[in-house]
Amino acid sequence: MLYVNAKMGQALGNTYNKQMKFEAREEYFIKNGGILLEKHIALSKGQGIGPRQVKIFSTEEIQKATNCYDPDLFLGSMLRGMVYKGILDNHVVTIRSPPELDPNPELIDHVLTEVSAGMMMNHSNTVKLNGCCLETYVPIPIYEFCPNSSLYQNLHGGVAISNSLKWGDRLRVAADIAHALSYMHNALSKPVVHRNVHSEAILLDESIHAKLANSGYCVMITPGESSQRWPLKGTPGYIDLEYVETQEVTDKCDVYSFGVLMLELLTRRQPLMMANDGRELVDAFVSAV
């Protein structure tokens, strides 16, 4: 009888845990969905376009797409999660799972801003958002798969085509990112500033065309009004020096970062390494010329 009771207790415990997990998933879905809606309303307010249709996936679909996070499908790790290759709706996609440890709310905010921005963007030189999963503590974004990795890896080693990124390819990358930023700054009724343009945020597709990603720091600005102050965000070495001083966000923040990117494309050197003697990059560039 004790054995039967123990087995029954274990079964009830398993049922309870499953129920708790399901309730947690429901809670995450409602919470993340509400925040995402608020963010999208805030970010797209006044836009003359509607949001793209983005599919919501379940955790079961994500696990199936990654074969339960098969190590053979692992593409790499980053500060905001582990990146996997997967197949969803018969398309090869990139899936970014959250870190194992529960992160702080700032990470949730960053991912949902990224998803909201992805819902607005519809340009061939921005990475397409295919969907997201809202049933986890940190939402899981799903993007189109870019087989030739990031510009950073191609410029500074680590991928197969790093030795074949010729001058023409680099010119095309520069033009592609210029088009993406022009779209964000000019094609929408209110400019959207990326605030994190750098070589790791640029992905290359099968034709070595560039797509701008990592839009979690995007903010909308209103032309003609006083610049709004925002906490300093971005990647060291690419951040606009005036933004550092004033914390005021304008489209020139992206223009400065794009200039740093151009210098990186020209020299194939990392920005922080070019300024390692304490000089500003502008001074280093003028001296080099």
Characterization of the model:
The chain is α+β, with helices and mostly antiparallel strands. The protein has 2 domains: 143 residues, Phosphorylase Kinase, domain 1, CATH 3.30.200; 138 residues, Orthogonal Bundle (Transferase(Phosphotransferase), domain 1), CATH 1.10.510.10. The chain has 9 helices and 10 strands. The protein has a 6-stranded mixed sheet, with helices on both faces. The chain has a two-stranded antiparallel sheet with strand order 7-10. Strands 8-9 form a two-stranded antiparallel sheet. Helix 1 crosses helix 3 and helix 5 runs antiparallel to helix 7. It starts with a helix and ends with a helix. The N terminus is likely disordered.
Biggest sheet: strands, sense, closure? Answer: 6 strands, mixed
The beta-strand count equals: 10
Distance between the termini: 87 Å
Strand content: 5-15%
> Which structural class is indicated by helix and strand composition?
alpha+beta
Question: What is the CATH architecture term of the largest domain?
Answer: 2-Layer Sandwich
Low-confidence stretches: 1-20, 46-50
Tell me roughly what share of residues is in helical segments: 40-55%
Main attributes of the structure:
Transferase(Phosphotransferase), domain 1, alpha+beta, two-stranded antiparallel ribbon, 10 strands, six-stranded mixed beta sheet, Phosphorylase Kinase, domain 1, 2 domains, 289 residues, single chain
